[in-house]
Amino acid sequence: MPITIPKLLPAREILEEENIFIMEEDRASQQDIRPLNILILNLMPEKEKAEAQFLRLLGNTPLQVNITFLKTATYESKNTSRYHLDQFYTTFDEVRNKKYDGMIITGAPVELIAFNEVSYWKELEEIFDWTKTNVTSTLHICWGAQAALYHHYGIGKNELPQKCSGIYAHQIFDRTEKILRGFDDVFFAPHSRHTDTSVAEILNSPDLKLLSSSEEAGAFIIQSLDRKQIMVTGHLEYETETLAEEYTRDLERGLSVPVPVHYFPKDNPNQKPINCWRSHAHLFFSNWLNYYVYQETPYEWK
């Protein structure tokens, strides 16, 4: 089944070229089916790229999925046109009285700023609290995961000596968890962040379960015991070239950043990277939509 997106959304052309099954809103409204309603709070600076990354993964299941993009009202993006945001995004005030089957809160380039100093932090805290009653399952990515761990469970972040960037091997600790169904014993995933979260604090929390981690990159997939909050510290949604683009961007800004590890063949940035995480990215998002959203959400929200 398809994902339902606005007809003029730029990501549509990318997805059509990849044969991702998409459907316009007008056609979807004529189908006698209960679609999943997914809200995406997109905090990434290059919003159009992030849109395509998440839609690609959400469109790879038998379920029909309606997507709503959310923007912050207390901060205006400097990297995405106001026209794009006005046409395809809504604000929290416009959805606060609605219920959603699932929600994704993305990463954001604010890791080195204290949480309460982020310009939209109070707004985000309100959204975090709202998800407890208005969303069946919320998926938090990278900084969004760190922010959720801090807000919901009081677990802070620690600045790293140098940026954690590259493709890392991960182990799983409980293969009976449905979010990990079908995963290999060891799988790979991208990380791109300047801060870290304490594995010990996660393990000591009575409300959390560490599902996967990396010896090099630390905690990766964490979930609340009620499975309503899932935190992923890396970027399974990243495309093959995303880390290379970030590396080039940072160098052009004059930043001293390491070459992403285990990413370029022979660690040579002049060689084209090879994607070794795509299948697990699709599997993770399919498992989330199926087991944590579709099979848990009420048919009719009350």
From TrEMBL:
<keyword id="KW-0486">Methionine biosynthesis</keyword>
<dbReference type="GO" id="GO:0008899">
    <property type="term" value="F:homoserine O-succinyltransferase activity"/>
</dbReference>
<feature type="site" description="Important for substrate specificity">
    <location>
        <position position="192"/>
    </location>
</feature>
<dbReference type="GO" id="GO:0019281">
    <property type="term" value="P:L-methionine biosynthetic process from homoserine via O-succinyl-L-homoserine and cystathionine"/>
</dbReference>
<protein>
    <recommendedName>
        <fullName>Homoserine O-acetyltransferase</fullName>
        <ecNumber>2.3.1.31</ecNumber>
    </recommendedName>
</protein>
<dbReference type="InterPro" id="IPR033752">
    <property type="entry name" value="MetA_family"/>
</dbReference>
<dbReference type="InterPro" id="IPR029062">
    <property type="entry name" value="Class_I_gatase-like"/>
</dbReference>
<feature type="binding site">
    <location>
        <position position="163"/>
    </location>
    <ligand>
        <name>substrate</name>
    </ligand>
</feature>
<dbReference type="GO" id="GO:0005737">
    <property type="term" value="C:cytoplasm"/>
</dbReference>
<comment type="function">
    <text>Transfers an acetyl group from acetyl-CoA to L-homoserine, forming acetyl-L-homoserine.</text>
</comment>
<dbReference type="InterPro" id="IPR005697">
    <property type="entry name" value="HST_MetA"/>
</dbReference>
<comment type="pathway">
    <text>Amino-acid biosynthesis; L-methionine biosynthesis via de novo pathway; O-acetyl-L-homoserine from L-homoserine: step 1/1.</text>
</comment>
<dbReference type="GO" id="GO:0004414">
    <property type="term" value="F:homoserine O-acetyltransferase activity"/>
</dbReference>
<keyword id="KW-0808">Transferase</keyword>
<keyword id="KW-0012">Acyltransferase</keyword>
<feature type="site" description="Important for acyl-CoA specificity">
    <location>
        <position position="111"/>
    </location>
</feature>
<comment type="similarity">
    <text>Belongs to the MetA family.</text>
</comment>
<feature type="binding site">
    <location>
        <position position="249"/>
    </location>
    <ligand>
        <name>substrate</name>
    </ligand>
</feature>
<feature type="active site">
    <location>
        <position position="237"/>
    </location>
</feature>
<dbReference type="Pfam" id="PF04204">
    <property type="entry name" value="HTS"/>
</dbReference>
<keyword id="KW-0963">Cytoplasm</keyword>
<feature type="active site" description="Acyl-thioester intermediate">
    <location>
        <position position="142"/>
    </location>
</feature>
<keyword id="KW-0028">Amino-acid biosynthesis</keyword>
<feature type="binding site">
    <location>
        <position position="192"/>
    </location>
    <ligand>
        <name>substrate</name>
    </ligand>
</feature>
<feature type="active site" description="Proton acceptor">
    <location>
        <position position="235"/>
    </location>
</feature>
